[in-house]
Amino acid sequence: MSDKKILVVDDEISIVNLLKLTFLRAGYDVRSALNGEDALALLQNEKIHVMFFDLNLPTINGIELCRKIKKSMPMSIVYAITGYASLFELSDCREAGFEDYFKKPVNIKTLIKAADDAFERHERWRKK
């Protein structure tokens, strides 16, 4: 598997499966979680620097999850994906540390480009 890992967090298993398949076909190693607690537990055991989160998650919403991750892993690149754009303001997402914000349904090519760009950026940061 590639050393380029992506974490997908969404409480809808069909969305998780679609994103996993999409990123796997693009050559990425993909991990997933159905909620924020599981995502945080997974990140205790694995280094993952590129992540895609649904915002409307149970218990810990995507904004709070992003804040927690950025606090412990400031170099991570996290993207928001939501079908509930009216519940979450773009300014809240930026303040939490999200790199970008995508509304469902989102074009798969857009997500792959975001992942590609994130890994390029992360590689540049590591070389400095």
Topology of this structure?
Blueprint lengths: L4 E5 L3 H13 L3 E5 L2 H10 L4 E5 L7 H11 L4 E6 L7 H7 L1 E6 L4 H20 L1
Parallel strand pairs: 1-2, 1-3, 3-4, 4-5
Description of the structure:
This protein is an alpha/beta fold. It has one domain: Response regulator (Rossmann fold, 3-Layer(aba) Sandwich). It is 48% helix and 21% strand. A five-stranded parallel beta sheet has the order 2-1-3-4-5, with helices on both faces. The two termini are 26 Å apart. The mean pLDDT is 91.
Gist of the model:
By secondary structure, the protein is an alpha/beta fold. Helix content is 48%, strand content 21%. The mean pLDDT is 91.
Describe the strand arrangement of the main beta sheet, using strand numbers. 2-1-3-4-5
Please indicate the percent range of residues in DSSP E strands (runs of 2 or more): 15-25%
Number of helices: 5
Task: List low-pLDDT spans.
Answer: none
Number of domains: 1
Report the mean per-residue pLDDT as an integer. Answer: 91
Distance between the termini: 26 Å
Share of residues in helices: 40-55%
Shape estimate? globular
Classify the secondary structure makeup into a structural class. Answer: alpha/beta
Q: Which fold does the CATH topology refer to?
A: Rossmann fold
- The radius of gyration computed from the alpha-carbon positions, rounded to a whole number of angstroms, is 13 Å
The helix/strand order is EHEHEHEHEH
Q: Output the CATH class name.
A: Alpha Beta
